[in-house]
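User: Run a structure prediction on this.
Assistant: Running it now.
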Amino acid sequence: QQQQQQQQQQQQQEEDENEEFIRFYRYKITEFLEDMDAEHSVTAHTSLVACALWHWVGMALIPWLVGEHLHGGSKATVPTSSIFYFTIMNMASMVTELWIALHTADGFKLLCNCTENVHGALRCQFTKASTMAAIFLSIVARLRCCNDNHALQG
């Protein structure tokens, strides 16, 4: 019986340690970003602003970075370096957004249940579909901006 009590105490201690390790913000992401006392909220907000600035400045720099390689008309081409540049910028923004989402309980559930959410979106379940659509539209919007920039140069 003492062994069982020791095992239960040890198990309880491990659970307590795990609870201390994983602390999620219980509210929405916007509330997490606004709460100056929440751990990492200031860094998260600053990171989002930095990603937005990097994206717009990066898109504005495309004509100077790859402008001589852009050709319009019937033989229009988009340089591989430009696609690589866009991919790096997009992935950095996505990783930042995922890092921020992981700070909230809902964001953690979203990532842990990713396959179920995609499956739910394919079955037209509104909440799961809207979340997946928001992520997809975020990527499409960045791509659209990049493509518009190439079209202007061509």
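The mean pLDDT is 77.
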